[in-house]
Amino acid sequence: MKILIKLAGILEKYPMKAILLSIAAIIVTGVGAQNIEMATGNDTLVSRESRVYQENEQLEKEFGGESVIVMYEARRDNLLAVQNLNHMKRLENELLAENDIYSILSPVTLVEQMVDKKFQTYQDGIKEISGSLEKVGGNLSSISRKLDLMSANADVLQPGLPEKQETLENMVYDDEGQLRSLFEEVVVDERHMMMIIKFEGGAPDSSKSEIVEKINSFLDENKVESADVFVSGKPVLDDAIRASMKESMQKMMMLSVVFMIIILSLVFKVGWRILPLGIILAAVIGTVGLMGWISIPITMVSMAVFPILIGLGIDYAIQFQSRYSEEMSAEEAQNE
């Protein structure tokens, strides 16, 4: 109580200095508002010091974290067409430079692995043919068959995806026309295939958002004629949640300001009746700015603070101003 009395005495003695100091403090803290971030990660719900969080963090560090799924849905029956895989390959190339990506798995990566093995097989075959030339007489038919096979699949003799649809289908399907088991993880059915982009464990939300935005930008600029492409996964959902949180806060603040102006104008019968609104806005700006300066993100839990802050702040501001007006009126009446 003594501290409050002393503080009141200082404010009474130096009113202009107190006002200027308050404005300066609001401006300084308000600048930090531009650093505020929305957070939806596990650490917003579970303590970083908990065993569960640390074990999960270690697991993600060793085997990668959350994944983004880029799903290709064919409009016709040519899902595994060369042009579709080339589109997927270009997207993969766009993402290779990102440091926070742990791995990318897609039909493209699997086909390229098979091409590498085929290339090695053909190299071994060429060596065998070279050695067999010394025994031309007895091996002409065998050499002819191998040369025919190499000619038919010549587009796998170079790195990258096959250029011929027939070669691609021979790699993806077995002799009975069934999808090879190697592709079952990324080819869901005859109309759906996907690219799985796994983030590094502990990748920041900002980096995930940038990569998701990069994927969406690429897909907007590079349409696929024979397929519809959409992006999903927890990082995509979290990004949408953060955007929704930001939008909701903006709407909440605007609606609060509008309703408070209306209510104060109609109900609060004193001079400077809108002043409490300015006080509470200054408090909100200062709070958000301070959170930005000390790197405290806004989470789904901490968002609940702002309605309480607005409610209590406007309540005390109205009471303070009302009491001040009463004292001023009483003093004026006494002087008369």
UniProtKB/TrEMBL annotation:
Q: Where in the cell is it found?
A: Cell membrane
Gene Ontology CC terms, in alphabetical order: plasma membrane
- Which keywords annotate this record? Cell membrane, Membrane, Transmembrane, Transmembrane helix
- Every Membrane transport protein MMPL domain range: 186-334
Q: What superkingdom does the record give?
A: Bacteria
Q: How does it sit in the membrane?
A: Multi-pass membrane protein
Q: Which residues cross the membrane?
A: 252-268, 300-318
Cited InterPro entries: MMPL_dom, Mycobact_MmpL
Family assignment from sequence similarity: Belongs to the resistance-nodulation-cell division (RND) (TC 2.A.6) family. MmpL subfamily.
Under which name does UniProt file this protein?
Membrane transport protein MMPL domain-containing protein
Can you name the source organism?
Answer: Cytobacillus oceanisediminis
